[in-house]
Specification:
Elements lengths: L21 H6 L3 H22 L31 E3 L19 E3 L2 H4 L6 E8 L4 E5 L11 H13 L6 E6 L2 E3 L4 E3 L2 E5 L6 H13 L4 E2 L3 E3 L11 H12 L6 H13 L13 E2 L3 E3 L7 E7 L3 H11 L2 H9 L4 H12 L6 E2 L10 E2 L1 H17 L31 E8 L6 E10 L2 E10 L3 H17 L14 H5 L3 E3 L10
Parallel strand pairs: 7-9, 8-10, 9-11, 10-12
Antiparallel strand pairs: 1-2, 2-4, 3-4, 3-18, 5-8, 5-13, 6-7, 13-19, 14-15, 16-17, 17-18
Helix pairs in contact: 4-8, 4-10, 4-11, 5-6, 5-7
């Protein structure tokens, strides 16, 4: 069937009648008219006969729709060495996975990349730091970036707070301190927005209360409704976990193990009690803080740069959403990125700060974000390795990828995976290091098998590295993510402990 031509399928063959005065022309004594009439008869009769025998319909012109070439001048623009080597690849389904092959045009000056099939509905762009395109295909198609949204969240949060910002968990009381009994006659209050507050942080608070002479609270534990612990969304559950963790007699084995690891990771092993604890005579409640309270001290989280590094390495959705809330949520994040990168809402649109659900970003817009983010980090004397996982070296989503002796440490980036949304999504974006230079890359694969996409990404990145002398590790001294989160500290309102007036 012809899809680009005019066709009347329900009318069958179309016949055209002979001219009205044809017979009179035959009978004419004029020889020229006779031969002209004979020619017309043979011509039209032949067309009708051809129509009946399956030939072309008379006067039915095939109309072909010719679209404008998206790359009319392969040598124009800022990358004159880049030329389009292939218009499209066939949409033949993969026999094993059912993943279709992308039909997007490919721009590259590297024949091997031009001949490499790209699976799924995909957007790919790889550029040198100077902005020269190594390969590009479908980079202007809005696709689901999955957890690569966390790159935008990290950018917005670091821009708003800076890499050294710490979240404070404040410890208050409305009671009176009794030094003789090492107790407070009143309630203990806890408030804060620390998104990574965990078992070890609660025990650290108990340790500090013991250090300043408090072991018993003759009252209740009151926790605000924005407090979270162990990545629990429920403030009630978080408050109950805090209550049992502060009390050594109720502390869970998991909390005890976390405290032991914290003493080692923090480097404060000899300065922290082995089994600190606080006893409450009352219970635990979730409610707002009253107006008349006295601040005892604050527990400060690890710096923002370390929190972002952990969130990006493990691709923690809860943590990403909490961090996103601090800057106004997904729409605010998208707006910041749009303004700073010059992207339109059609190119960069978010509904979540974690990458779950339906988000739409083009590979070209993500590339612009990588460039702006890289520049921002450089101003703080930081690199992508300070906030993204380094493949084969950091725990998390890239721990087992690019982990051979040849490629370990040569890829720094953010993964993304959605097994069911948009019929399967896998993404990878960040920085590739080679012996001949550093390249930024974005690979968005959608509508296909995730395992197939990951295999393609691994092979594709390695193939690119091979065109530039092979993989080369970045300068990076790996540190455990637990050690990063152990960089907490205690601070006092006036710089020194004071529990009595």
């Amino acid at each position: 069937m012809c899809y680009d031509c005019e066709y009347v399928a329900d009318r069958g063959p179309r016949y055209y009648p002979l001219p009205y005065n044809f017979l009179s022309m035959i009978q004419s004594s004029n020889k020229k008219s006779y031969w002209l009439g004979l020619f017309v008869f043979v011509f039209f009769g032949g067309l009708v006969l051809a129509q009946e025998n399956g030939g072309p319909r008379p006067m039915l012109q095939e109309i072909r729709v010719v679209k404008d070439d998206p790359y009319p001048n392969p040598t124009a623009g800022p990358t004159p060495l880049v030329r389009r080597t292939s218009r499209s690849l066939p949409r033949n389904p993969d026999i094993v996975t059912g993943t279709a092959i992308s039909a997007n045009p490919i721009r590259t000056s590297i024949p091997m990349l031009a001949e490499t099939a790209i699976p799924g509905t995909s957007g790919i762009i790889v550029e040198s730091l100077e902005g020269n395109i190594v390969v590009e295909s479908g980079s202007h198609i809005p696709l689901n970036p999955a957890s690569n949204v966390k790159t935008a969240t990290s950018y917005a949060v670091l821009k708003a707070f800076g890499p050294n910002h710490r979240f404070s968990t404040n410890i208050w009381t409305d009671g009176v301190y009794d030094a003789g009994t090492a107790s407070i006659n009143g309630n203990l209050y806890v408030s804060g927005l620390d998104p990574v507050f965990s078992f070890e942080d609660a025990v650290r608070i108990a340790n500090e209360l013991n250090r300043i002479g408090i072991r018993v609270i003759h009252g209740d534990l009151i926790v605000t409704d924005n407090f979270t612990m162990n990545y629990a969304a429920s403030p009630v559950r978080s408050s109950q976990t805090l209550f049992t963790t502060l009390d050594a007699s109720r502390r869970s084995p998991a909390a005890t193990r976390a405290w032991g690891a914290y003493r080692i990771n923090s480097g404060l092993f000899n300065q922290l009690n082995e089994v600190p604890g606080i006893t409450f005579t009352g219970s635990v409640y979730v409610q707002p803080l009253p107006s008349e309270l006295r601040l005892l001290f604050s527990h400060e989280s690890a710096p923002m740069r370390d929190i972002v590094k952990v969130m990006m390495s493990y691709s923690n959705n809860f943590l990403s959403e909490r961090l996103g809330d601090t800057v106004g949520g997904p729409y605010a994040i998208a707006r910041v990125v749009q303004q700073d990168t010059g992207s339109t809402p059609m190119e960069f649109s978010l509904q979540t700060a974690s990458g779950l659900g339906i988000n739409r970003v083009t590979a070209a817009a993500m590339m612009r974000l990588l460039r702006v983010f890289r520049s921002q980090l450089s101003g703080w004397d930081m690199t992508f390795a300070d906030v993204m996982p380094v493949a084969g070296m950091d725990a998390g989503t890239l721990e087992g990828r690019f982990a051979t002796d040849f490629s370990r440490g040569s890829v720094v980036g953010k993964t993304g995976t959605l097994a069911r949304t948009d019929s399967g999504v896998s993404t990878l974006a960040g920085e590739i290091s080679t012996r001949e230079g550093t390249f930024l890359f974005v690979i968005f694969n959608q509508r296909g098998a995730v395992a197939r996409f990951r295999s393609f990404q691994n092979n594709y990145v390695s193939l690119i590295q091979g065109q530039f002398g092979g993989a080369s590790p970045v300068r990076y001294a790996p540190q455990s993510l637990d050690s990063r989160l152990a960089r907490t500290r205690i601070s006092y309102p006036d710089g020194r402990p004071r529990i009595s007036e």
